[in-house]
Amino acid sequence: MAILPMLRLHIVGHKSEEEDVLEVLQELGVLEVERINLENSLPLDFLPSKLSDLSKELSRIKTDINFLKGYVNTGGSIIDLFVPQKLSLSDDERDKSIREFNDNKGYETIEAWQSSLEEIKTSINNLMQDRELLHPFESLNFSIRDIKGFKLTDVFFCQMRNADFQKFTEEIEALPAVVSRVLQLPQYTFFIVASHREVAGEIRGIFSRYNVTTFNLDKFYGIPREELSRINSRIEGLKRKEEEILREIGKNGDKLLKSLYVIYDIYQNDYTRYEHLNKVVHTDSMFLITGWIREKDKKTVEETLERGFKDLYMVTAKPEPDEEPPIALENNSFVSPFEVVTGIYGFPNSREFDPTPFLAPFFVIFFGLCLTDAAYGVILSILSVYLYRNISIEKHRKKLLQLLFICGLFTIIAGAITGGWFGNISEAFSFLSFLEPIRKKLILFDPLKDPITFLVISLVLGFIQIIVGLFIKMILNVKRGQYKEAIFDQLFWILFLLSLVFTAGTLILEPLKPVSTFSTYFTIVMTIALIATQGRHQKSIFLKITSGLGSLYSVISYLSDVLSYSRLLALGLATGVIATVVNELVKTFSGIPVLGVILGVVIFIGGHIFNLVINAFGAFVHSSRLQFVEFFGKFFEGGGREFNPLKKMGTYTIEKEVTE
Amino acid sequence: MLGTALAILGSAIAVFGGGIGSSVGVGIVGQAAAGLLSEQPEKFGNLLLLAAIPGTQGIYGFLAGFLVISKLGLLGGTPVTPDLYQGFQILFACLPVAVSGLVSGIHQGKVSAAGVSMVAKRAEEAGRALILAVLVETYAILGLLATILLLNGIKL
Fold first, then answer.
1. Is residue A489 part of a domain?
2. By three-state DSSP, how is residue A327 classified?
3. B66:A581 CB<8 A
């Protein structure tokens, strides 16, 4: 439970074994390597080029992956949009996948696909340009080659704006030349000009004056219509070829993509490992690796390394008082999902408690009260179990789902005692009214009719959590030997707050009346005790008393902390009311003949999903906030760094879990 | 009948006050998020949560509005007619959620948009960005709570 004790580990050995040692350590995944700066440490000459080779290889594989991803149907679901899933593979499957990839010349295949697809694309583009060019002259019924290469005549294929065509024709035909219109579009005219070569200069002058565009059709020979159909059939042929390649990619790309994923992750792990070499100290022939391990891993690390290497020298040591070891948390299976919540805020430092076990019970209760709908709780639990079983990501990232499962269970309880089942489903729909007695039996109070009870429950829970927070701080101070702080700053406050609330209780609750005098006196005593001790850091007696009195003002901040828990009521009501609105809408719409039932079902499902998502999200963040601001504020220092050992990780793949 | 009209006015103010706050707020985050998504589409999941946060004020406003509607019995059943004073009471009871929702929605949008740029640089900080945005929401919730308690106290 709580923060695991850490040990510092030094490993000294011969340089020749260094890479293998790191590889073994990466396989174990238990050592966080720390960088040490020693002046006479020698840099490794081969390292920069090795790293740049690896990163080049990585980016090449990445390009191939992105290429294949564009054409292979990976069967992605809506979950991938939020959490990209990873392939779960065992070591054997990995080896097999790589072997197949190499046997089939994977890289060559992919690159061949890539280049032929590109080639086809360029060819099609070129052909399409040709088609554009030739298209206006489609109606000519002679071969283009027949009007080229005359001795004394130039032939031009031209285009110009319609407006000036008449004038232009007159000017041209004044020379020894003819104009023949081929095609007239709303704005442009396409035409051919044939002229004697001796007036070539004048012709060009006229062309530029009238903004005439001339086309070079030298690459065409035959009759335009035939040329066009040839182009079209070539385009079609290329497209067929493209489709064929795409079909092939669709058929075989899937496997290659998987292999690429495996290979990418291997290279990535290599890259991380070699990067770690930068943190290691080297002499001419020796290396020194320094870092942190969990105390419980000590035996495994030592045994594994001793078995694999003969000439290693290992030393472990407890952290020095001024050292800040990284933080690894370990909790039982009920509490450990709540590390997600702690992780959002930040890790504890090595001199305090892991707050996770303390926040866990409050968090689930708050979550349940915020959602207060038993049916939603059922859905949430089932959904998280389903996703937990079916989503393929690293195990530690699934903790959130475990957390939601537990929260779902508490929501069922909270929903049952407040009578929320899809809002007021059994009340709203007459065909479900047979369930109404069961619902009524489970209800302890109805938040809509009796919000004050709910409010009191929320505030009492808040008060308890704040007292618990102060209590933890007290224990912490005792552990550190700061007894004065523990008694004056926490114990006195706890007693004062408790007696204050108890005294207020005696005024309202009849059975407590007899002790009211006692509790009033006790409160007064505690008040005086606080005034006497809270100003103890001040020098003069006058300042001691005024700052003691001033400290009583903190009551206001405790009060506002407690009031902050009233959000539980507001969020709890919100779920119920929105669910009721959805049911009302369903009732209204289902009155429509024929379509009504379908509409009703659609609104029911859509509306309740919306409500569940919005409110589960709200319940999560607000329950977290109450931990972070109101609870952690009382005792938590934080500032710890998460333990991040050198280990194997995958961007695309994860280790297959061994099912026993 | 004037009482009913005033009560409906209260309900309307609650709904559109929260609605304006949320739509402006979500608008601000949405723009920031869309900008980031064009570069890093894999962060959609994180950004969706940030963009959704300022949406709650609109829901709170709607919730208060609905409470008034059901209090007046306008959804079927026998409608209750509040007198002039009760109408004013309901109208005033709606103001906390309307005004706090309007203002906090806009500001929550700004905090969330800042959170988006936080996520842009470090995706693992998404949780903290969310918590910062939620700090603003407290006041919308307190507004809603005040409205609910006030409405609950008005006897028709």
1. yes
2. strand
3. yes
Work out how many domains chain A is built from and give that number: 3
Find out whether A507 and A523 touch, Cβ atoms under 8 Å.
no
Pair A448, A347 in one domain: yes
| Long-range contacts (CB closer than 8 Å, 24 or more residues apart) made by A217-220 | A217/A133, A217/A134, A217/A137, A217/A144, A217/A157, A218/A148, A219/A130, A220/A130, A220/A134, A220/A144, A220/A145
Facing residues of A214 across strands? A158
- Asked if A155 contacts A194 with a C-beta cutoff of 8 angstroms, the reply is yes
* 8 Å CB contact between A350 and A640: yes
A318-346 exposure pattern, b = at least 16 Cβ within 10 A, e = fewer? eeeeeeebbbbbebeeebbbbbbbbebbb
Query: In this structure, what CATH number is given to the domain that contains residue B80?
Result: 1.20.120.610
Q: Which residues of B touch A618 (CB under 8 A)?
A: 56
Q: What percent of chain A has a predicted confidence (pLDDT) above 70?
A: 99
Clarify whether residues A656 and A617 are in a common domain.
Answer: no
Tell me the pLDDT tens digit for each residue of A83-133: 778 888 888 888 888 888 888 788 888 888 889 999 999 999 999 998 888
Domain count across chain B: 1
Whether residue B134 lies within 8 A of chain A, CB to CB, comes out as yes
Residues A296 and A393 in one domain: no
Strands A213-215 and A153-161: antiparallel
Which tokens in the block code for residue A542?
């006058």
Q: What is the pLDDT of residue A211?
A: 86
Residue A286, token pair as written in the block: 């020796």
The answer to whether A458 and A623 are in contact (CB under 8 A) is: no
Q: Which of A69, A82, A449 to mutate to test the interface with B (most CBs of B within 10 A)?
A: A82
Question: Nearest CB to B49: which of A83, A344, A617?
Answer: A617
Q: What are the tens digits of pLDDT across the range A548-573?
A: 888 888 888 898 899 899 999 989 98
* Residues A315, A342 within the same domain: no
Cα–Cα distance, B122 to B116 (Å, whole number)? 10
pLDDT score at A660: 44
User: Does A410 lie in the same domain as A295?
Assistant: no
Q: Does one domain contain both A321 and A422?
A: no
Distance (Å) from the alpha carbon of A15 to chain B's nearest alpha carbon = 36
What CATH number does the domain containing A193 carry?
3.30.70.100
**How far is residue A74's CA from residue B101's CA, in Å, rounded to a whole number?**
44
Q: Is A282 helix (H, G, I), strand (E, B) or coil?
A: strand
Please give the C-alpha separations between residue A639 and each of A351, B77, B125, B153, in angstroms, as whole numbers.
10, 58, 15, 46
Distance CA A207, CA A212 (A): 5
Question: Mean pLDDT for chain A?
Answer: 88
Q: Which residue does chain A place closest to B53, by CA atoms?
A: A618
Tell me whether A399 touches chain B (CB under 8 Å): no
Q: Can you give the residue range of the structural domain that contains B15?
A: 2-153
Closest listed residue to residue A280, CA positions, set A466, A590, A9: A9
Give the best residue of B15, B49, B59 to mutate against chain A (max A CB count within 10 A): B59
User: Which of A194, A217, A240 is the last residue in one of the domains?
Assistant: A217
The answer to whether A189 and A162 are in contact (CB under 8 A) is: yes
Last-in-domain residue among A217, A232, A250: A217
C-alpha distance from residue A627 to each of A345, A357, A491, A624 (Å): 9, 12, 21, 5
Q: Considering the domain boundaries, does residue A273 fall inside one?
A: no
- Give the domain extent around A175: 149-217
In a domain, A627, yes or no: yes
Does A156 map to a domain? yes
Segment 52-111 of chain A within 8 Å of chain B by CB: 81-84
Answer whether B141 sits within 8 Å of A567, measured CB to CB.
yes
Task: Tell me, yes or no, whether A512 and A605 share the same domain.
Answer: yes
Query: What tens digit of pLDDT does each residue of B105-156 get?
Result: 999 999 999 999 998 888 778 888 888 888 898 899 899 989 988 998 888 8
> A381 and A285 in one domain?
no
